[in-house]
Amino acid sequence: MSSDDDGGEEDDRRETDVLDLGSGAAAANVRALFLSKEYPVVATDAEGIITAWGAGAQALLGFAAEDVIGTSLHQLAGDKGRELREIWSRLKPSESLELELQLRCKDGLSATALVIVSVADATFGPKRVTAFLKDVSEVRRVDRRLQALGRTE
Fold first, then answer.
1. Whole-number Å distance between alpha carbons of 55 and 33
2. Own/partner pairs for 124-128, CB < 8 Å, 24+ apart?
3. What is the largest CA-CA distance in the chain?
4. pTM score, two decimals?
5. Are 74 and 117 in contact (CB under 8 A)?
6. Nearest to 112 by CA among 80, 88, 134
């Protein structure tokens, strides 16, 4: 392996180390989710401050981890940011929910995402929230086209 490859692996580990996952198979599995471009994953604290930003979230929204870690996830929700902040504040340990949001992309456009939120049990430290994002932009475009076609008939 070249020294460039080693540096990339170190950068990947640093980006996921903010999760304080420790070691072991479970930690390796969570790191793999954050490093995969196929699975947009974001971790926040109880207030919605981004603590980890997966490669898939970067692929979906365009922001690199260093651009968003330490900022509020609610800022990416545009006019729904206040509502999202209230939802985050009411989340209880071991609770999960799904909601659909328009999220702001780095290029100024937006992506419609199904946000699946899971709250870690606070027994082992501060409350952590993990959000899995699923891009449903194309599905919503097709839905709108089908509805428009239905109205014209």
1. 9
2. 125/20, 126/45, 126/46, 127/45, 127/46, 127/91, 127/93, 128/19, 128/43, 128/44, 128/45, 128/46, 128/51
3. 63
4. 0.75
5. no
6. 134
- Could you report the per-residue pLDDT of 46-64, keeping only the tens digit for each? 889 999 999 999 999 999 9
In the beta sheet, which residues pair with residue 114? 100, 134
Provide the 3-class DSSP secondary structure of residue 125: coil
Q: What six digits make up the tokens of 109?
A: 């456009």
List the one residue out of 70, 24, 79, 23 whose CA is nearest residue 43: 70
More confident residue, 103 or 24: 103
Cβ(87)–Cβ(61) below 8 Å: no
Q: Residues 97, 70, 74, CA angle at the centre, nearest 5°?
A: 40
19, amino acid identity = L
CB-based contact 54:42 (threshold 8 Å): yes
